[in-house]
Each structure stands twice: as structure tokens, then as C-alpha cells.
Amino acid sequence: MTLKNQVKLMQEAHLHMPQGVAENYRYWGDEQTVFISSAKGAQLTDCDGKKYIDFRLGYGPIILGFRDDRVDQAVIRQIQEGGTLSGFSTSLDTEVAKQIKAMCPQIDKLRFANSGTEAVMGAVRTARGFTGRDRIAIVEGSFHGLVDEMMWKSDIENWNSGDLLPPKIIPFGAGIPENTRELVDFIELNNFESLEQLFMMRKDSLACVLLEPIIGNAGSIAACNCWLQRLRDLCTENGTILIIDEVKTGFRVAKGGAQSLYGIYADLTTYAKAMGNGYPVAAFGGRSEVMAVVGSHAGGVVHGGTYTANLVSLSAAYATLDILANTNALKTVDEAGLQIQALLGRVFTAAGIEHAFAGPPAMLGIHFSSEVPNNYRQWRKVNNNLYKNFAWKLIEYGVMLEPDSREPWFICEAHSQIDFAWLEDVATKAIKSVL
Ligand code: PMP
């Protein structure tokens, strides 16, 4: 039998990279790690020629489809006519800033970055610079990138919902300094008591609360409006900066992101993923008064980076944001998401499986329970093993997704052309074979 290309590529990759991958989250096991040879629209082709309809979309950035011609041509023009990077200002910086402001009314001033991690780092530092305080609070189940302080989480795997004590807080892995833990508090989504306690305890030391109101890293479980409003009010009353992390939701769930769906606005916001349709670009920004601390003036907050606002990324952002602002792309995405939700609903109902859909159609959380969990601790009670088995079956049949119900299904404009009848058929087969 000839060896699959996947096996050969993985064997070779192991010689050169830890676990044989370029970054941790791509390692799915020696035989399961996926090597992709090309991507177009909503379709991936792996190194052995197998095709997948992709609902993972590179962890969420692909909003229009892979290799979108409108974006790629803008990038090619930029490279050929203006180059990739000069380390100086260009008019494009201001043009993209204006586009973001036009779509997101809570942004007065912003700065650029290359990844969600960097945008979060910039926003948190700005909040600390503005308030003169060090502590931060985050919501259980969220993910905010790879800065040390963000690398703490609730040990939910070893916690049962009947436990008297809350889950232990543990690092995501080795190498995270213990003293960064000291600066971080955790709150539970939609738990008012947890909010009140936080502000009672940390009134004068809390620089910021950082959250994804629709948790893109916990199955799109969403904050209820009144809880988010109470958080907003407490931040205002206590001089704490509210940072909304729209790295996953921004320019995806609506033109103005999650905040426009709630009508509740942050002091600072982070964006990345969908703003560049797969090119590495990010931004953080917010109220003028807060952003005024950023700069090289005495006492200013440091922000910079060689590749910041590089022209490949900014030209991609300009083209992507232009399409999102001025076409029906997000409406198409929403409609495709609703259609997928409806067909999966039929499949689960026919199989007699309790299910609940969370989040907006562009970022669909699927939970095998009678209702959407209210927060990350409740997610623990949901039948995630069934989801995992279902997801692996779908992958086998050519539907790509993350085999973990914490990662929502991402929809892109190119999904409007997929064969929904095929998907319904495949999902029916997949669920039957794992029951
Ligand atoms: N914030 C959120 C909400 C995220 O989902 C992620 C990544 N999934 C990040 C920040 C970090 O972004 P990046 O991977 O671009 O560094």
C-alpha cells in the first residue's frame, strides 16, 4: 500500500517542528493532522486530494471565501505598485481607519496590529496606561490570545457542576509566570453576583474588564443584554475600562460587530480576523480620551511593531471592509447560516437529539442540550462527546470543522453556493453512525 501524503508530510514535519506543526492548535494527532494543498471559496483540498466544505475557515477570518478575487487583486496591485512595507506612514493607514470608524461608531481613534493577540495586548496596555491600574478581569471560557496574563483558564475538565467550589484557575500550559496570575480575576458570564463581587473587591485596582459578549471560544454562548449593561454601568461608575474583544465577532456577526447587536459599547475594542479575509491584520481603538494616552509623548503608552500596518495587510483590509460595508455580503452570510441551522435542526430532530443553537448565524454554536448553556460552567454539562464524534464523522465525510463544540461553525459569503441538500444528507449519515 502506498503511504498517504499526509503520513509522509507529517513524518517529515516532525523532524523540524515540535509535534510536527507550525503552532499548537494545528496538531490533531499524528494521523489526524490536516495538511492543506489549496483552498478556494468555501472549499479546502488536502494533500491527498480530498475535498472539504469548510466551516472552520482558518479559525474564523475568512468571511468572503478563500482566495476572494476582489481582495487578492487589491493586494497584488498594492505589492506591484506600492510595495509591502516601508516603515513609514501611508494614506492607506488613514483610509482604513476611516472605514472602521464608519462601521463602528464607538471608535474615535485606533491603532493597527498584526494579530488578535497583539491587538489585545495593545488594548490592555492602553487601559492600564489610562487608569494607572494593573488588574484585569476576564470571563470564564473566553480566549484572548497568547499574552501571558491571558493564558489562565478555569480547569473545567476536572470540575463537576455539582462541586461546591468554583473551578481551579490553571495556566494554558508551561512557561506562564505564576505572578501574571496575580493580576487576573475571573467572572462568570451572566452571573450578576460574580460581577458585583468583582467590583466590590477590586474597585480601585481594576484597569479593565475584557470580554467577548458572544463567546467565540465557548460555543457562541452570549451575554444577556441586562448583564452586559450592568457590566457597562459598573465600569463607568468605577473608572474601569470596558474592552470588548471583537477579534472573532468583528465585521462578521454584523457590520458594527457584537456591540451593534447589543447597542452597548465599549471604551476600547479589538478587531482582527474578518477585517482582512485571511490576511494578518488587526486593530484596537476606542474613545478619544482613552486612546490619547497612546504615543511617544512623555508618559505615553508604547505601541509599535515593524509589520504594523504593512501594506499587504492594509490593502486586504481596505478591500474586505469596502465589500462588507457596501455590499450584501454579510446578509448572504447570515442567510446561509440560517439555512445551515435549519437543516441541522431537521437532522438532529429526526435523530431525536436535544439541541440548541447559540449565537448569530455567521458564528453558529451547536449544543447537544435542551437549551443553550448560560455560561462556560453550564457548557460542562452538555453532551460534548457526542458532538466530538459527530464532528469527526463529518470530517470523514468531507465537512471540515473543529471537533470541539467550543468552536462555532463559521460561515462565509462563498457558502451561499454550497449544496445544502448534500450537507443535510451527510449530516444525517454522520449523526446516525455515532448514535
Ligand atoms: N481574541 C479572541 C476572541 C480570539 O478568538 C483570538 C484567537 N482565536 C484572539 C484574541 C487571538 O487572536 P490571534 O490568534 O490572531 O492572535
Automatic annotation (TrEMBL):
It holds the Pfam family Aminotran_3. Its cofactor is pyridoxal 5'-phosphate. Its EC number is 5.4.3.8. One of its GO terms (molecular function) is transaminase activity. The keyword Metal-binding does not apply. Keywords: Aminotransferase, Isomerase, Pyridoxal phosphate, Transferase. The keyword ATP-binding does not apply. It comes from the Bacteria. Belongs to the class-III pyridoxal-phosphate-dependent aminotransferase family. This is Glutamate-1-semialdehyde aminotransferase. It comes from Polynucleobacter duraquae.
